[in-house]
Amino acid sequence: MKIAYYTDCLLENNDGPAVNEQEFLLQLKEKYGDNFLFVTSLKNKTFCQKNNINSVCFFEDLKLSSIIQKIKYIKIAIKLSKENFDIMVCRFVGIPLIPFLVKLTNKEKKIAIKTAALWYIDDTKSNSFLDKLYRKLRDGIYHYMYQKAAVIDTALPYAKEHIAKELNIDKRKIFLVENGINTDKFSLKNKLLLKEVESCWPILGFMGSLPASRGCRQILEVSRRIIKNYPNLGVIILGQDDPINTIVSNLIELGVRVIFPGKVPYSNIEQYVKSMTIGFSFYEEETVGIHGNASQKVRQYLSCGKPVFSIYHNHDFIEKNDLGAIFCSKDYDIMAEETIKWVQRVEKNPSEIENRLRNYALEYFSVRSTFIQRLEIYKNILEKS
């Protein structure tokens, strides 16, 4: 099976989509060597060079006003439509004009949409002419791509029914594929605590974008409630936004030892995670209700054997399998109580908890297992066509 893989994600970002696509690309490289075609933004050239991704077709990011660029896109699409690949796997965050043109040019080419989101639920506030034009063009092309795709996968359990209903798509061609994480990177190996927190216990932690609204507010409120129980409490925060500085100051005023390096490269974050006692991952209920949630950080915490505190939405498996606890985002008193319970459990049976959580992540969230699952789906689709 010959694969072409398209993404417009900026791979060197530390956000969830970028990490997701990094890992998928590296799995392709490991399995196929140079025997696959990568179609991506010119901004990903450095990442490709660093990782020896050699069979690449680069394109410049889309500018709606550039006629010359559109002509270049058409030329790229015509060339790609003649390439000898069986299926083009697409993960897009912008307008996927090139895959769209490839499909228009050669209707026999199979398209697989990877990690589909509910793009048609648009909460954008801007009503400027250019923004309206952009959304109209995006919606038209997305709708065409979803309709013509041979297969669609999503990490959101409820999205399968939602996409099928709203876009009138046969749900038999929509599959649930979990967000996979690198379980070799996020592991139980080399578990030495960071020197900065060697004297701390317990250590609450967060990593990711928008820390103030996605977990650190909860960490602050829990810290207020348990600092008397744990005067050596530590907190690790990876990520940066404007409100987080106030939260860090409030934590320090409470007497909490705070490790706050800001944004940390993806290549360096696992040692911070391994130093945590409990990992936090929250979203505002209204945001999750619109866009869903399949947080990678939840899976990365578990792969390092760390209990997870998260929002109830789409995280029933955490409570069901005793992997941590789930809450409404402002249940601070209950969170504090659960924190004390989990810290006591970790103190009593650290190895049992670490190994059990780690094994769960290996079974369900390994990037290798999700990669193999996708390949099997693609092979079945091609065999039926």
- Count of structural domains: 2
The H/E string reads: EHEHEHEHEHEHEEHEHEHEHHEHEHHH
- Count of extended strands: 13
- For the record, what is the CATH homologous superfamily label of the largest domain? Glycogen Phosphorylase B
Helix % is 40-55%
Gross geometry:
elongated
Strand content: 15-25%
Low-confidence stretches: none
Description:
With 385 residues, the protein is α/β, with parallel strands linked by helices. The chain folds into two domains: 3-180 and 366-384, Glycogen Phosphorylase B (Rossmann fold, 3-Layer(aba) Sandwich), CATH 3.40.50.2000; 195-364, Rossmann fold, CATH 3.40.50.2000. The protein contains 15 helices and 13 strands. The strands form two sheets. The chain has a seven-stranded parallel sheet with strand order 3-2-1-4-5-6-7, with helices on both faces. β5 (110-113), α5 (129-148) and β6 form a beta-alpha-beta unit.
